[in-house]
Design goal:
Serum Albumin, Chain A, Domain 1; about 10% strand
């Protein structure tokens, strides 16, 4: 005998081989597992997934039904009459999903995109430099900034660039390239410049949103460090729930787990090392300053979340920390 178990958001159904419903019950994961185990545990089983539900197929006597989606459709039609609230559940879920998209959800996507843009710029710039060095190696070695390098080769030809280095083109080790061979190199340089413009526009958006929604947190951490902290956590709600000690080591998870596992020295700071007060401090004072910043950030993000009208707490707090840091 072939038995089918179908589950949707409303109910769980058990059907026989003629697709007649044997029983139904309120849907829970335990119900699905119980029906599946009780009714078809005596035979090898597989799961066929579909957006409308899950079918547990006992194919001991009928292997042809394993991936038969026409059969799945018939099962859904047979059960649909028994699920009058299905459309209501779908509407509720759609509404909840739509309402779950908040400003911090979008901002975290922008923050993470800047990291990916930086990786793309570095990757393409390395290829651009290696490619262009066959034409002008002396100039490539003289410019460290990837974006500046791409901008210069777009706006100047080889002879002009060599003249700026006081090098005669005849003395250059680079090969002469035709316009046809040089064209794809310049296209790649143009792509690097476009990525740079995209990163700048995204950074402006991030800074504006941080100052609007997290003014106190941004005043203490700075827009760049604050955005990285938020991007690491994912949502403001999760950041509000974090203790100061957790905020202090955000970005240093590997060092923290190494400390817990092997007993190595614990990290004193993670992303907070990029804060000017920490990075410019003496090595022995960095942990103390990072701790003060983490305590202040923990209070600031709660202030922004629960008392959005208070926009002066962060400015006052960072002044106190700067005075304490100077007196260390």
């Amino acid at each position: 005998m072939v038995t089918y178990c179908y589950a949707n958001m409303d109910s769980v159904f058990l059907l026989d081989e003629s697709l007649a419903i044997l029983e139904s019950a309120p849907v829970t994961q335990a119900d699905v597992e119980a029906i599946a185990n009780a009714k078809i545990s005596d035979a090898e089983s597989k799961i066929t997934a579909n957006k409308s539900g899950i079918v547990f197929c006992n194919y001991k006597h009928d292997e042809s039904n394993l991936l038969d989606y026409s059969l799945l459709k018939e099962i859904i039609v047979a059960c649909k009459a028994k699920t009058p609230r299905q459309e209501e559940f779908i509407a509720i879920v759609a509404k909840k999903i739509s309402a779950s998209v908040t400003w911090d959800t979008l901002l975290c996507q922008a923050i993470r995109s800047t990291d990916e843009i930086d990786k793309s710029i570095n990757l393409l710039s390395k290829r651009l430099r290696e490619w262009y060095e066959w034409h002008n190696p002396e100039f490539s070695r003289s410019v460290e900034s990837h974006e500046k390098f791409a901008e210069l080769i777009l706006n100047s030809d080889r002879n002009k660039l060599l003249a700026e280095l006081n090098i005669n083109p005849k003395d250059s080790m680079g090969a002469e390239l035709s316009e046809k061979d040089l064209a794809p190199i310049l296209i790649l340089a143009n792509q690097v410049m476009q990525l740079k413009a995209l990163r700048e526009a995204t950074t402006i958006y991030i800074h504006e949103q941080m100052k609007i929604h997290l003014p106190n947190f941004t005043a203490i951490a700075g827009a760049q460090v604050g955005a990285k902290l938020l991007g690491t956590v994912g949502t403001v709600t999760r950041l509000v729930k974090m203790t100061a000690s957790t905020i202090q080591v955000l970005g240093a998870e590997k060092a923290l787990f190494r400390h817990l596992k092997t007993g190595a020295r614990p990290p004193k700071h993670g992303l907070l090392f990029q804060h000017p007060l920490v990075s410019k401090a003496k090595a022995g004072d960095r942990g103390k300053i990072a701790r003060m910043l983490a305590n202040a950030l923990s209070l600031a993000v709660r202030t922004d979340y629960f008392s959005p009208d208070n926009r002066t707490f962060g400015v006052e707090k960072i002044k106190e920390i700067e005075v304490k840091a100077q007196n260390m």
